Amino acid sequence: MKTLDARGLACPGPVLLAKKTLDDQRPERLAMLVDNDAARENVGRFLASRGFAVSVERQGDDYLLSGLLQGGGGGDVAAAPTATATATAVQAQPAAAPTRVVVLIGSDQLGRGDEQLGGKLMVSYLKTLKEMGPELWQLIFVNGGVRLTLDDSPVLAELQEYERDGVIVLACGTCLAHFAVSERQRVGQSTNMLDIVTATQLADKVIALS
Fold first, then answer.
1. Fewer CB within 10 Å of terminal CB in the chain, N or C?
2. Cβ(205)–Cβ(102) below 8 Å
3. What are phi and psi of 156, to 5 degrees?
4. Do 113 and 151 contact (CB within 8 A), yes or no?
5. Sheet of 3-5: strands edge to edge?
6. CATH no. for 101-209
7. What does the pLDDT read at residue 25?
8. DSSP reduced 3-state for 51
9. Which numeric CATH code is attached to 3-80?
10. How many other C-beta atoms can be found within 10 angstroms of the C-beta atom of residue 166?
11. Which of 125, 117, 191 is nearest to 155 (CA)?
12. CB 210 within 8 A of CB 107
């Protein structure tokens, strides 16, 4: 089994490398070396979404992910979703699904002018989003917005409730790593740019806040 070396690749490089390999070669086994927690989570989740059982082994400062296709046959890979959990969630929706709205949140403040006011406005906005009802499909946090998914978030309880109600909550893994807060994430899944691009492509409406 050939081992793909994704060390040093910026997000979403490791996931794109895994996707290309599966699409081109349809292997039943796949191994990949990555050098950070975000890549480990993103590649592992992607392989799982394509029907692989994934194991992870620590090798010094790196991680070796080994995937074994479940159900047998490379053809299963071709028939599997071509994106990560985002696309899988879409395929699972009924034909008469409501409008899918993605809210992309790039800051822990809403608007500019006063930081304290901006923080209060963002909290109020996220608490009020429930009024959108079943149309609210995904909440994606990037850049400073990922702080709202941490253990001290003023809207942690609300975001956890959204997730329990079926809203997909995603936080940019590269952003969490940049701010060195990955271990403090308490809601949602760590994600990568491929997931984000796929979500915005498949959404009926995207609301971007920065």
1. N
2. yes
3. -60, -45
4. no
5. 3-5, 29-34, 62-69, 52-59
6. 3.40.1260.10
7. 92
8. coil
9. 3.30.110.40
10. 10
11. 125
12. yes
Query: Model-level pTM?
Result: 0.72
Indicate the domain borders of the chain: 3-80, 101-209
Amino acid letter for position 111: G
Q: 10 Å Cβ neighbour count for 119?
A: 16
94: DSSP letter: -
* Structure tokens belonging to residue 175: 């952003």
pLDDT (tens digit per residue) in 120-147: 999 999 999 999 999 999 999 999 999 9
Tokens of 143: 């850049």
Token pair for 157: 């309880």
Q: Are 41 and 15 in contact (CB under 8 A)?
A: no
Q: In this structure, what token pair is assigned to residue 165?
A: 């109600």
CB 70 within 8 A of CB 53: yes
